Write the structure tokens for this entry.
Amino acid sequence: MKVRSVDIGQMASASEVIFEALREAIVKGDLTEGEALRQDRIARMFNVSRIPVREALTRLEEQGLVSTQRYRGAVVTTLSTEEVSEIFEYRALLEPEMLKASVPRMTDEALRRARQIAAAFASEPDSVHWGELNRDFHYALYEAANRPYFLQAINAALDRVDRYSRIQLVMTDGMERARREHEAILAACEARDATRAAELTREHIRGAGRSLVDFLVRSRAERDGTASRASA
Amino acid sequence: MKVRSVDIGQMASASEVIFEALREAIVKGDLTEGEALRQDRIARMFNVSRIPVREALTRLEEQGLVSTQRYRGAVVTTLSTEEVSEIFEYRALLEPEMLKASVPRMTDEALRRARQIAAAFASEPDSVHWGELNRDFHYALYEAANRPYFLQAINAALDRVDRYSRIQLVMTDGMERARREHEAILAACEARDATRAAELTREHIRGAGRSLVDFLVRSRAERDGTASRASA
DNA sequence: ATATTGCAAATTGGATCCAAAAAACAGATG
DNA sequence: CATCTGTTTTTTGGATCCAATTTGCAATAT
């Protein structure tokens, strides 16, 4: 009898493992902006040579999560407030369009899943899994649009600003507000009102962007202020 | 006397050179879809080891220009008609927005440059530099918007579909039509009518997308037809 | 004390070598 | 003849080694 082997998912390559680990660490904010990523150190952490580490860093650079200078190594990218603002404008353009395409095609099953995730938001007001849930929620809404390129673009944008969003969410009332807005967007989807869902999404993103930029401007001004006082 | 060294632009790394060369070859269509990219062969072409070649291929994969399978190497990406269509929708969303932001900020100098490039279109109906000119034209129009992330996103999308566009342009009346539409967009910019310029751009891209997808569907159907006849 | 110069250490980019996997091929078997 | 099987060849992923460059630091000069 032929036993179909179960190895559907290939054993991941070393560089893949490292790439995913670093990517998650950066997105979640465990690696802070400006932090240097030494090839040798990372290689030892994973018990591999520097070669797969370099491949992972190359990919991260291509995604804009780290920036490297020749012979000087890689550091976690720091986004200026202008860049954060631009990325939110970008999301505010793409995501409503995505949702508009998705709503007419969403199955009841997809709506149920989205509602389930929305419920999880309410029950878990701590921010540990917030980013994860946020992704899942948006993914559940956008999935039916069946636009892989759009989805990838949206995810890339999310990756870049996620760590900033997380900081802001816990420091302000952002979490409660996001929960309410998600609820409204989901309700519009359930009512099959694509236009309204898109409009709400646009405002949701614009609002989140504004308050994040605001938060960054203030906290950076303060930091620079104390820094200059300290150095003076 | 202090002589400021002149090496403003660092000597490019080997992987950078290879990356740019392969990228251009793929975008221009010199490397055709599905073509295998052997590390060893490329390494010998550039007189380097496989290491910088692998870095270049990793970057190309991250940009979606090649796709690799573990232990099986890299091939130039083939886009389905659905993917081409989606990328044009994406461009049709981003580029008008970009232009709308750009028009109010365009200097007379920028307009002059754009007009100069538009003139070059007319004088050089051959398609050799068409893609190049097309990029330059759009870049001249979008530059003033001062949105690097949008620009990068647009360029990435252009890179993916450029080689298909080029084929279609020479096979149909696309070149003449594009020239006319560019003229109209530029006129709207010169009249500082951002809304109209954006609308024309959207239709320009939508139209180009439709006719390209149409062209691809037909030429691929024919190819598969002859192929199956040949193999039968 | 501060700026400058000349090593030494740390770090990266690339070359060479080796192991693992896939593809190509040849012979055996139904 | 098609198919299976074992072997050889090709090709990729990763380890180790070396060269080029930057960085840290000490000694010196101003």
